[in-house]
Amino acid sequence: MVWGARLWAATALVALVAAGAIAAAVRTPGPEHVASSLTDSHGRSLVQHGFSTAGSAKSSPDGLPDFTEDDLDAEHTDMGTNFVRFLISWRMVEPSPGVYDEGYLDDVAERVSWYAERGYHVMLDMHQDLWSMAITPDGAHGNGAPEWATYMDGLPVADHDMWELYYLEPGVMRAFDNFWNTTGKHPELQDHYAKAWQHVAERFADEDAVVAYDLMNEPYGGTMQGPRFEAGPLTELYQTTIDAIRQVDADTWACLEPQAMGFNWGLPSGLGFVDDPRAGQPRIAFCPHLYPLPMDLGDGYTGASKQLVDATIDAWAGNVLRTAEALGDVPVILGEFGLNTTLDGALDYVDAVYDMAATTGMGVAYWSRDDGSWGPYESDGTERNLVTALNRAYPRAVAGEITEWSSGEGELTLTMIPDADATASTEIYLPAEEFPNGPEVDGAVIEAWLPDSGILTVNVPAKGADPVTVTVTAA
Predict the structure, then answer these.
(1) How many CB atoms lie within 10 A of CB 447?
(2) What is the mean pLDDT of residues 47-69?
(3) Could you tell me if 60 and 45 lie in one domain?
(4) Model pLDDT for residues 423-447, shown as the tens digit of each residue
(5) Same domain, yes or no: 357 and 290
(6) Half-sphere exposure of 125 toward its Cβ, with a 13 Å CA cutoff?
(7) 315 within 8 A of 293, measured Cβ to Cβ
(8) Per-residue pLDDT, 28
(9) Do residue 92 and residue 234 come from a single domain?
(10) How far does Cα 440 stand from its chain's mean position?
(11) Shared-domain flag, residues 381 and 401
């Protein structure tokens, strides 16, 4: 079968399966809100609002994104972000078996310090796509794993215009099969991976700004797919890796991603329960991605495509909440979603996803902080349409349990159960353009309003164990 025919067959099959899964998810009741949140050192519930930074790190010689401290200042000023999913890679952490590049980790630590100085929280993301740069001789397609951990056993990898099609190539599938040891040939690779993460965790364990580790970007099972892969090799890798991390870092959250192919389009996950060996409450989080199939294939958010995308978002959210519940009522961060924002209805889609995330209690890291049509700026620093869409009011850190929140132009509503043990007050970000004369607050006492940064600090009096609703409007 030629590759074009394979693509059409695969697309048709996925569409049929997704339609069935979406219909089933819509019919099946489940949780409506994430049961818990990541917390900071003050015991406050965190809402993540930021970017994956950045795709440019995938293949750069130094493994770092094309991103400066001035770029961070612009983002902070223009969109009030407080979070970053910062890309790192196994190829840079462990360039030779058992040898770790401390210079690379120094460079990562320097960039973490930029975020720390501005009050951000950082999730380090061990990124891969198509396994590694070694899948093709020119190194132009895959990324993530080191060359020494790429075993394709002589199988071919043909060229494609669509990068996703490389996943179907025999050589790429064999590289994944060898990592998951479904071939039985390379049981050492997962041990190396877990120890590489252990080395990263040992380096950043005492860095308060680093709150989470995203253990693997968009896992792919090679010839083993679906629930069998997720409940088997993927769950086992996560358990092995968390066990290794906890030997050197007891506190940083471990973020689990499901199999990307299928789940990103709205299908359920078969990921198994992962035990956190730390003392005290587990610190496991779920960090899925969202790429509805019509938009993944380049459609806009209009007409029939919009209807299918809306159904996909509903099904995806339901599956996320069910999986988070099954993993132990864990917090959720939407680790990636994004699109070419020149497409018809693009900003309406962005609004729809952020509204869904607020309603269900998820944090968001938009893909990505690269320049161009998917990002917030042009290469010369000119703002793009995404800046306005992402400059939204949101609760940054809440001294209690968040039960619900929403925002619109010039307003924000937060329902929470205050926690008297929290050692810092609730912080809310408000776009200065929407609050030119400052905010008015009902249900809380204003402690500080900093118009230059858009940060409103409030004290929310407790009413026993009852929820308290805080309403913020433009003065």
Answers:
(1) 12
(2) 98
(3) yes
(4) 999 999 999 999 999 999 999 999 9
(5) yes
(6) 32
(7) no
(8) 64
(9) yes
(10) 33
(11) no
Distances (CA, A) of 56 to 91, 113, 193, 340, 453: 15, 20, 22, 16, 28
Tell me which amino acid residue 134 is: A
CATH number for the domain harbouring residue 322:
3.20.20.80
pTM (2 d.p.): 0.95
What residue numbers bound the domain in which 10 lies?
Answer: 3-392
CA gap 331, 325 in Å, rounded: 9
292 and 194 both lie in a single domain: yes
Digit-coded pLDDT (tens) for 216-234: 999 999 999 999 999 999 9
- With tokens 């002589």, the residue in question is 154
Q: Which of 298, 414, 320, 306 is nearest to 352 (CA)?
A: 306
Question: Nearest CA to 181 among 137, 149, 158, 154?
Answer: 149
Quick: pLDDT tens for 401-429.
999 999 999 999 999 999 999 999 999 99
Looking at the structure, tell me whether residues 402 and 365 fall in a common domain.
no
User: How much is the mean pLDDT over the chain?
Assistant: 94
DSSP readout, 240-271? HHHHHHHTT-SSSEEEE---HHHHTTT----P
Total structural domains in the chain? 2
Burial of 68 (0-12, 13-18, 19+ CB in 10 A): exposed
Final residue of a structural domain among 346, 363, 392: 392
Contact of 227 with 257, CB cutoff 8 Å: no
> Average of pLDDT values for 113-129?
98
- Omega before 368 within 30 of 0, i.e. cis: yes
Q: What is the pLDDT of residue 17?
A: 44
Identify whether the C-beta of residue 259 lies closer than 8 Å to the C-beta of residue 225.
Answer: yes
Contact 463, 470 (CB under 8 A): no
470 near 413, Cβ under 8 Å? yes
The mean per-residue pLDDT over the stretch 311-337 comes to 98
Give the number of other CB atoms < 10 A from CB of residue 35: 15
